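W.,

You were right to be curious about this one. When I first looked at the sequence I had no strong expectations either way, so I just let the prediction run and decided to look at it fresh. Below is the sequence, 136 residues in total, followed by the output.
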Amino acid sequence: MSANKDEFRDYCIELLSGLRQGAIASKKMFGGVSFSIDGKTFAIISMDQLWLKVDDECRAEFEAANCRIFTYDADGKTKSMNYYTVPEEAMESAALMRPWALLGWGAALRAAAAKATKAANTAKKPRAPRADATKN
């Protein structure tokens, strides 16, 4: 990662630190960086831009602020991910970023809860003994 990219990553960590939810971990991924707390990813850097996780519960707020959805081209098609840019003014300070970061963190928590529920529902449950298996 270049010095400029390192500086931008460090600046984004500073902006996101207003969450005060715990230590923010950063990890290189696919030419970018992911940011997570307790293993839950809530923001990424890609294409020299900070993107926050979004779901149905908070998407309207990002769209109302004219934030853009993360898109990329693959297999000749444009695909998207549930990450949006933040308003330009939010990039100026941790205080201005905080409400947006909280929306991203909330989306990450809901995604983790949904994943855990799905895993619990699809986990193989032990079979009850067959009635005739107890007969000799």
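Here's what jumped out at me. The two ends are 69 Å apart (CA to CA). And, maybe more interesting for your project: Strands lie at 25-29, 32-37, 40-46, 49-53, 69-74, 77-85.

Coffee later to discuss?

I.
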